[in-house]
Amino acid sequence: MAVSSDYRKREESITLASEPHEQSRELLTLNIGPHHPATHGVLRLIATLEGEVVRDIKPIIGYVHTGIEKTAEDKAYWKVIPVVERMDYVSYYFNAMAYCGAVENLLGVEVPPRAQYLRVIHLELNRLMSHLVWLGTSMLDLGAISMFWYAFRERETILDLFEMSSGQRMHTRYFQVGGVIEDIPPGFAAKVRSFVQEMPSRADQYADLLEKNQIVLERLRGTCIVDEATLLGLGVTGPLLRATGNPWDLRKAAPYSSYDHFDFKIPVGTVGDNYDRFRVRLAEFYESVKIIGQALDGLPEGPFITPDRKVSLPPRHELATSMEALIHHFKLVTEGFRVPPGEAYYPIESPRGELGCYVRADGSAKPARVHMRDPSFVNLQALAPMVKDSYIADLIATLAMLDPILGGIDR
Amino acid sequence: MEIRREPLDGRSARPADFRSRQLRAHDMLDNALEEEDLDKYIEERVLTTTLEKAVSWARGNSFFPLTFGLACCAIEMMSIVGSRVDIARFGFEAMRASPRQADLIILSGRVSTKMAPVVRRLYDQMLDPKWAISMGACCSSMGVFNNYALVPSDKFMPIDVHVPGCPPRPEALAHGILRLRDKVQGHEPAGWRERYDAVGTEEVLPETGDAGGAINVLQPDDTGRA
Amino acid sequence: MPDATGLELTAHELRDHRADSVLGTTFERDRATIDVNPEYVVEVVTALHAKGYTFLASLHGVDYYPEEPRLGVIYELLDMKEVDRITVRVRVGVDAPSVPTVIGLFPGANHPEREVFDMFGVVFDGHDDLRRILMPEDYEGFPQRRDFPVGGEPVLFTYNSEKSYGKWQ
């Protein structure tokens, strides 16, 4: 397949280094956003241009700052879950997982194996969905509109599965401190299995559609390369770091929620250009599908939430017969559970990198501080080194491959 | 092989038949019909309406929504363009990236104090007649986050339809747009100041002419502050 | 995670560098925390960086409201080779809180430090671009301190729109 046109070669002959003009260097400051269709939300960028070349870029954020962390301090521990889910609104299961993990760590609650497997199934489905949204919208930025419809078709299938297990399409509040809120309904496993069988062929179709497309290749290959050391210094994790060849993935490095039970690979790139970022995410489709299949096969029997009645609600039928269950139910619903004082930081691997939740408990029924280390927020700092001294058209492609979610950045 | 085309009833349609029918209609209009018969004839064949009604019918069936996403609801707003809840069935799929070309803004998500002036500016840049839908709990009533960072959208701009949900399903948003269509077709005044009894609230430009107090206006040499 | 003895050994090494740099250590629930004198946070972090904790995973601001000193800045350091985390905690008073910046060592601390400044008012000395990051530039107060009200306002519905003071105009 002949993919190398001489366009890039001709382009390479142009030096992008700064050249002093005889009289003065003319710089143009361009404002992009906060309302711009290519900024994936309400991100605002102040770009300093010299002709068509970006010399400096400053992201300005805070346009969807919601004060979620402050609101979380005002609610009981288990009522915080729906609030934190709305931070990174494309990967809501991950937010709930990080928060629940931190609170479980503080409480010392053991999560039953079935709940861990159910969590893994939903986390990986969510990772697929998040990457599908990324694929659809980023290809829209590159001018490929049909990809959007294909990606959102599969997304609707996944959302149907979420709706089946929890009743909501987005922000499902399925994860609960100590497990999950409800067991999966009958028929769910069969539906997930048929989706898992179908998804790899869909991903093949996406790859066929995009990887042989000259425009996509020209715009992604060899653009906006940043080396591994710079990214590590900037705190960047996730597919962006893996695109440079560093296989850092918390699912392998520090397994949580029985990720060590599953056999999967970590896709890595080679040079760290936009194409590698694209390929790493595309390859993660197959790995997530593999994990879901294994988790369904090995789904253990047992309770889906911890039997500790101080933390989890008693089942409905017990309320009619047991006075103690009624008392626990009343106590949990009105006040919530109290958490012994302490601090916890619980990191997990979200579709965008390390998502950590810091929770400080002061002994009461409300958290004293909830703080999310959101990967989008940290990764956005890498935009400036990525696009410096490259064309402004590559800025849009790079932003698409960076995959920032503004709800996660601003919280 | 010979191919012959014949009408199904066996008779060939002669051009003279059409001609005679046309002549008959012409004769009837040419004072051939009396008053009552003429009224009946016209009622049967001609649809009358007012220009206003016709325009509002057309307007209500062809909104140009602004491509404008704020938060979670924006993802659900994108999926109404997708294949399942295809909004193109109703004629609302022409998303416009510039507010100058759009006549419907869908506030999809939470509006922060930092974003509110920008949203208001976008709304002001849209040409009248224009409509606004507030999608989801956050920008209608601030939903679960009633805190220091947010403002409800009713505080700074007129909203025509509120769609409840957190986030609303795409079907709910489609229903909201259809309700707005009914509203537009039902003789609503087109300008929002008349609709909401707000004549006299137009923006007044400062007399000095410099836009120092305006938001989102950078001073000439200032690149750092922004 | 370093175990409890490992944490003590690390703290001991840091004290050898400078006697009053480490104020105390905590080891609970597999989480190793070193309390550090705010003046020497850069030295401590540099020493930990040399020990292999080369990745700043996260930086949080905390308000320990009734306790004194009230404000805290927490650095989560990560050793990617050993997959080992250590937490450095700095406490400063609420009057003129200031902590030296670590962006010389970790450029990625830029945005998180600005966020802590925005939300808690902790000034990071030496930070070259310390502006508000999430709130509007002209905002007054530090909203995530514990004594800042949560805020919010009455919501306009049809039944109370007449009485309510705020309308969009």
Features:
heterotrimer, B: 226 residues, mainly alpha, 36% helix, C: 169 residues, alpha/beta, two-stranded parallel sheet, 21% helix, elongated
At a glance:
The complex is a heterotrimer of chains A (411), B (226) and C (169). Chain B has 226 residues and is mainly α.
Q: What do these coordinates show?
A:
The complex is a heterotrimer of chains A (411), B (226) and C (169). Chain A contains 18 helices and nine strands. Chain A is α+β, with helices and mostly antiparallel strands. In chain A, strands 1-2-3-9 form a four-stranded antiparallel sheet. Chain A has a three-stranded antiparallel sheet with strand order 6-7-8. Chain A has a two-stranded antiparallel sheet with strand order 4-5. Chain A is globular and about 85 Å long. Chain B is built from eight helices and three strands; from the N terminus they run H-H-H-H-E-H-E-H-E-H-H. A three-stranded parallel sheet of chain B has the order 1-2-3. In chain B, helix 3 (51-60) packs antiparallel against helix 7. The N and C termini of chain B lie far apart (81 Å). Chain C has 169 residues and is an alpha/beta fold. Chain C has a five-stranded mixed sheet with strand order 1-2-5-4-3. A two-stranded parallel sheet of chain C has the order 6-7. The chains are: A alpha+beta (411), B mainly alpha (226), C alpha/beta (169). The A-C interface holds A 61-62, 65, 67, 69-71, 73-74, 105-106, 108, 232-236, 248, 253-254, 342-345, 347, 354, 356, 358, 360, 368-369, 371, 373, 377-378, 380-381, 410-411 and C 28-29, 31, 33, 54-65, 74, 76, 80, 83, 85, 87, 106-112, 115, 119, 132-136, 143-144, 146, 148, 150-151.
Average pLDDT taken over every residue of chain A? 88
List segments of chain A where confidence is low: pLDDT < 50 over at least 5 consecutive residues. Answer: none
Task: Compute the number of helices of chain B.
Answer: 8
Strand order of the largest sheet of chain A: 1-2-3-9
Helix fraction of chain A, binned, reads: 40-55%
Q: What is the number of strand segments of chain A?
A: 9
Q: Helices and strands in order, then pairings?
A:
The complex is a heterotrimer of chains A (411), B (226) and C (169).
Chain A: H1 6-12, E1 28-32, E2 44-50, E3 53-60, H2 68-72, H3 81-85, H4 92-107, H5 113-141, H6 146-166, E4 175-176, E5 179-180, H7 188-211, H8 214-220, H9 228-233, H10 239-242, H11 250-253, H12 274-297, H13 316-321, H14 323-334, E6 342-350, E7 353-361, E8 367-373, H15 375-379, H16 383-387, E9 390-391, H17 392-402, H18 406-410
Antiparallel strand pairs in A: 1-2, 2-3, 3-9, 4-5, 6-7, 7-8
Chain B: H1 15-32, H2 35-45, H3 51-60, H4 72-79, E1 104-108, H5 116-125, E2 131-135, H6 137-141, E3 161-163, H7 170-185, H8 192-195
Parallel strand pairs in B: 1-2, 2-3
Chain C: H1 4-17, E1 22-28, E2 31-36, H2 41-50, E3 55-63, E4 71-79, E5 84-92, E6 98-100, H3 110-120, E7 123-125
Parallel strand pairs in C: 2-5, 6-7
Antiparallel strand pairs in C: 1-2, 3-4, 4-5
